[in-house]
Amino acid sequence: MVGNMDEKRTGILRGVGITRSFGRHSALAGVNVEVEAGRCLAIIGGSGSGKSTLVRILLGLDSPTSGSVDYRGLPVSGPRSAGYRALRRESGLVFQNPFASLDPRWTVGRSIAEPLAIGGGHSGDNSSDHAVSGRKNTDGWSARLGGLFGMGGRRRLSHDRLRGRAARALALTGLDPAEFLDRYPADLSGGQAQRVAIARAVVAEPNIIAADEPMSAIDVAARLQILDAFAAIREQRPNTALIIVSHDLGVVQHIADRILVLHEGLIEQEGTVAEVLGNPTSDYTRQLVAAAQW
Amino acid sequence: MSVSIRDLGIVIGSQTLVSDVDLDIADGERVGLIGSSGSGKSMISKAMLGLTPDDAVLSGSVNLSGVEAVGADEVTLADLRGRYVGTILQDPFSSLNPVTTVGRQIELPLRLHYRLSKAERAGRVRRMLAKVGLDAGLADRHPNELSGGQAQRAAIATALITSPRLIVADEPTTALDSIAQRQIVDLLVRLVDDSGASMLFITHDFSVLARATTRAYVLEHGRVVESGATSDLLAKPSTPQAGRLVGAARKLALE
Amino acid sequence: MAQHDMLPAETVHDGRLGISDVVAGSCQADAVGPAGAEGSPQGRDSSPRPALHTPDEPVSLKGLGKLAVVLRSMWSQGEGRFALVVLACWIVVSLASIVWTPKKLWETDGYHVWAPPSADHLLGTDGTGADVFSWLMAGARTNLLIAILSVMLAGVVGVTLLMAMVSRSKMVSAISVVAVDALISIPTVLIALILAVPMGASIAVIILACGVGYGLNLARIARPQALLAAGSDYAVSARASGASGGYVLFRHVLPNSLPSIMVQLSLSAGTAILAESGLTYLGVGVPSGVPSWGHSLSTSVKLIDVYPLTVVWPGLTVTVVVVALNLFGDVLRQAIDPIVNTALRKVAA
After folding, report:
1. Contacts A147 to C, Cβ<8 Å
2. B3-95+164-251: CATH, from 1.10.3300.10, 3.20.20.370, 3.40.50.300, 2.60.40.1570
3. Spatial strand order in the sheet of B223-229
4. What tens digit of pLDDT does each residue of A135-147 get?
5. In which order are the strands placed within the sheet that holds A25-36?
């Protein structure tokens, strides 16, 4: 139905005129964003620039004060909207601090498989819209009860399948499943834990992976491994869109296709990596470029 | 203040965190300590301040201008810490007390270690705020009203208010955004050089180390694997550990 | 519609699972090694798939292994050993008392009242000439029942309220927080006295009063830890994957609040034992004639000046058991928590 409308476009997630205020403070003031399938968008800005808020709004995890978000042509407006529900199955999230984003009392394997256990897993590409249109039943009571008791609704995957897919996702990030699946987060280094978090974000084969400062809590040597993990995802899942939020132009230069510079809730500059790095048009962008230089 | 660490070992339970570390800082020198997380670099700085956990067993010697810190009593250590050594930690929001105003926190080391009139203290705090580039009006604010960069400037002011002879900066830029990182490093270098103090700068990032220090030690698994002039380490690291750290930092910086 | 949606999707998964054959192949090869080396029952699994997964059989073995690790780490501490021994004795004595006590409970000897300990009466006799030791043995099972049922009720009441208090629904959480704060100000004894009006003196009064009272305490004390888990990134992450509020509460919030719940519940068990003594003394607890430690205490306490020994035995029993329960909770919390207990983490691996 609605899903067919934008089939030809490459932009799968769009935010138009997004404004978000917290009391008197305005975190975002009319931002337009378009995330394209198979591309990597870097949202760059300092602390307080509104970049994390923007990502949460794009993924439907926060509501804009005004403006609209749509995913594959479906409106994302509150938990009942079609776009929101589709995003829950078809997006993955990576946080800044991996130790805060992994349940300390769950094993790595269980954490990675969680999106599958909850949703049953997404079919993994964006050509078929049956996954969007015909899903009402899985949101019914039986699925909710199933979810409550960890049975993952109707499309329940067996323990073995969950584990197998968790292993594959983990292997994609460069960690050996045989060694890491049964560990607890307490026995991981920061870089390893972040790769586990990435494996969880990618396990359900989402259309969009959003990472909010995925490298700033990790030491420099391990950041390269995180970048490698993202690069591997882009190679193996060429249709996956990647949104990487960072304060550092240096860390995204190798992975991003486009850069969006955000400053005090407004877009300062937007363009390809070469455009932004080669020709910073605003004062703030110039500062960012200078700060990332050796 | 000069620092001379010889044969330092730190063991907690069955775990050896630091072993055979020799490290020297000359008067007025800015020295770096670089390694990945878990390499033991913070533990060394804690040993210098006598702040290692109670169950840590220290061996060897940490000599701060003639005062031995390993096995020193609490009175000596407390005097050393506040008066002669200033410390700056990674997260300014957890190193600043959230219920006290910024001005009172900057003032605290003065109250603890020196007998000064209220007006004298206020004057010093005002001058210190100007030095770290903070508006005088911020003295009456609470830490949660500051940005990360401002809070770290306040933490630097607190560390430097007693004009310490040694600054220990433990990953002071890691929690900040890239623009604030540059500003804080440059500020710290300027203030340390102006005051003639020595500095031990701890980081995992060679691009920060390159700006902050003239000489550095590379640490891995609690041991020093390489040391030398920072520029030499950057140009031709001779160990794979140093090479990896330099390579990663270069790759993540813009040309 | 549902089937149409479901079936193709399942098969589609199979087709697209492979990230790449190289990656999948290598990780499977890695996994086979250790599984075979352990000589686990996986070897008998004739499934053609090289097993990355652990079949159900070893899971239960793993469960047993975990239990062994938990018990061993409890036993390795002095407090834990004391608690385990006392609690084991308590249970054994309770069970034994059903079939055997040294003397019949109602076998009284008018010529030997308030007798000191002797070979015939191990701990002496009380004011009716009944054997104190036998009554304490029989009392053990009443108190065990009270402790278990109070803790279960406190657990149900407490966890329900806790989940309501950290619920994402602002109305539910606000109402439950106010309700808990208001109800917690009513003393447990008062609840018992009110309940005793319609119910009379009965074990149910103790269980209801303790269960509700301690449930309220549990909810309030575990709330900070639960709020932390409810607001954590892993909870956000689960919700971002489409998890319901109930899923997050029961899969993340509850397990992560378990340490403080465990401690609070074992404290509750101890306090329930103490409350039994107090309420029975007040005459609203265990009805007269039913053996319990509180009963033994209250019948002998009136003559404490003259015959202190008969009070000492039940008093000592209650004290030792309460101390054991308090220690038990603390030791158990550390033993079952994978964050604290490194040995437990290794069993999984």
Report:
1. 243-244, 246-247
2. 3.40.50.300
3. B85-88, B166-170, B198-203, B30-34, B215-220, B223-229
4. 434 444 444 444 4
5. A25-36, A11-22, A66-71, A74-75
Q: What is the ipTM of this complex?
A: 0.86
For the stretch A252-284, pLDDT in tens is 999 999 999 999 999 999 999 999 999 999 999
B254: DSSP letter: B
Other beta carbons within 10 angstroms of residue B84's beta carbon come to 18
Nearest to C33 among A149, A159, A178 (CB): A178
Substitution target in A188, A219, A273, A276 with the highest count of B β-carbons within 10 Å is A219
C343 touches chain A (CB under 8 A): no
Mutate to test the interface with B, among A47, A220, A282 (most CBs of B within 10 A): A220
Provide the domain count of chain A: 1
Amino acid, res. C280: T
User: Beta strand pairing status for A91-94 and A208-212?
Assistant: parallel
Structural domains for chain C: 21-52 (no CATH), 85-101+138-348 (1.10.3720.10)
Query: In whole angstroms, what is the distance from residue B6 CA to residue B121 CA?
Result: 38
Which residues touch A241 (CB under 8 Å, ≥6 apart)? A12, A13, A35, A36, A37, A38, A39, A40, A41, A207, A208, A209
Contact call for A and B: 3+ CB–CB distances under 8 Å: yes
Q: Which of residues 117-176 of A touch B (CB under 8 A)?
A: none
Q: How far is A221 from chain B, CA to nearest CA, in Å?
A: 5
Counted residue by residue, chain A has a size of 294
- 3-state SS string for chain A: CHHHCCCCCCEEEEEEEEEEEECCEEEEEEEEEEEECCCEEEEECCCCCCHHHHHHHHCCCCCCCEEEEEECCEECCCCCCHHHHHHHHHEEEECCCHHHHCCCCCCHHHHHHHHHHHHCCCCCCCCCCHHHHCCHHHHCHHHHHHHHCCCCCCCCCCHHHHHHHHHHHHHHCCCCHHHHCCCCHHHCCHHHHHHHHHHHHHCCCCCEEEEECCCCCCCHHHHHHHHHHHHHHHHHCCCCEEEEEECCHHHHCCCCCEEEEEECCEEEEEEEHHHHHHCCCCHHHHHHHHHHEC
Q: Which residues of C touch A155 (CB under 8 A)?
A: 6, 9-10
Angle between helices C254-282 and C132-165 (to 10 degrees): 140
CATH of the domain at A284: 3.40.50.300
Q: Which residues contact A61 (CB under 8 A, 6 or more apart)?
A: C236, C239, C240
- Confidence class for position B113, pLDDT limits 50, 70, 90: confident
Q: Does residue B62 contact residue B23 with C-beta atoms inside 8 Å?
A: no
Chains with 3+ CB–CB pairs under 8 A to A are B, C
Supply the range of the domain harboring residue A151.
2-292
DSSP label at B55? Answer: T
pLDDT tens column, A83-136: 999 999 999 999 999 999 999 999 999 999 999 998 754 443 333 333 333 343
- Residue B218 confidence class, pLDDT cut points 50, 70, 90: very high
- Give chain A positions within 8 Å (CB) of C233: 95, 97, 100-101
Separation of alpha carbons A287 and C49, rounded Å: 55
In Å, how far is A229's CA from the nearest CA of chain B? 15
Residues of C in contact with A134 (CB under 8 A): 1-2, 4-5
- Where in chain B are the domains? 3-95+164-251
Which chain B residue shows the shortest CA-CA distance from A97? B175
Instruction: State the Cα torsion B236-B239-B240-B241 to the nearest 10°.
Output: -100
